[in-house]
Amino acid sequence: MGSFVLILGLLVAVSNGIHVNTTGCGTSKVCMFRPRGCDPNLDCTIGVTLSVIGPNQMKVQMVAATIYPPVQQQYVAIAFSHDRAMGNDSVSECVISNMGEFVGYEPEVYVSYNKGKSNDRVFLNDDEHAELFTGLAGEVVDTRLVCEFTQQIMPQIDNKNGLIWNLNSPFYIMAATGSAQPDEVNAHELNRDSHSFPITSDEMINPVTFGNNFEHPTGFAPKINTNRIEKRVMRPTEAPKSSASLIPLIPFVLSFFFF
Fold this sequence. Notes:
Layout: E1 3-7, E2 10-14, E3 30-34, E4 46-54, E5 57-65, E6 73-81, E7 89-97, E8 106-115, E9 118-121, H1 126-132, E10 133-141, E11 144-152, E12 172-181, E13 184-185, E14 199-200
Antiparallel strand pairs: 1-2, 3-4, 4-5, 5-11, 6-7, 6-12, 7-8, 8-9, 10-11, 12-13, 12-14
């Protein structure tokens, strides 16, 4: 997490060390950044890296320029899709709260699902969340939001009626950022000429192919009791009547390249 020091009456952000590692891009890691040639630790307006770091463990690192004027919550999200348009996609979203304050940044990671052109979070209890996601860290420093976490490739939890996906399959990879509310994300940037417009891979990618040295499970083998009393705050799985909808991710190949 970032910390802050008081210098001449100003609060200045100091990074505690979330570093987006670009080593292995194109060989052992999937990398997508905008603009072309940017440094994700310095000036990328949006970007994502994926790497397999152990059996069934995929590390996700995401960056995005902070929204101006500041918002209370901002997300940066990665989507796995069967095509290059929004709709019927599995999404992992990192949300950092108190963006409009200058203290107390708190990251949270959610799994959600694009139902057509709207996005709904999928409820996970504490045990399911801890099984699916580990190693969460996030910070806001130097006008950049940075988030990282490790996610199971083949989830060892209930698939929530098909809303939790096995990622051992080819997918188009998408990344987007925008403001968020306590229960949902808001629309991303709509201007296709903007550096914050969502990015999409130009071909399908199977994350497991970047980690062939590991033994991966063959499928869902429950490790926890999913029938226990659920403790985590409920998130709606049906779109609220007045919810904001995400605008379609228009097929647009932008800055997908390997270092």
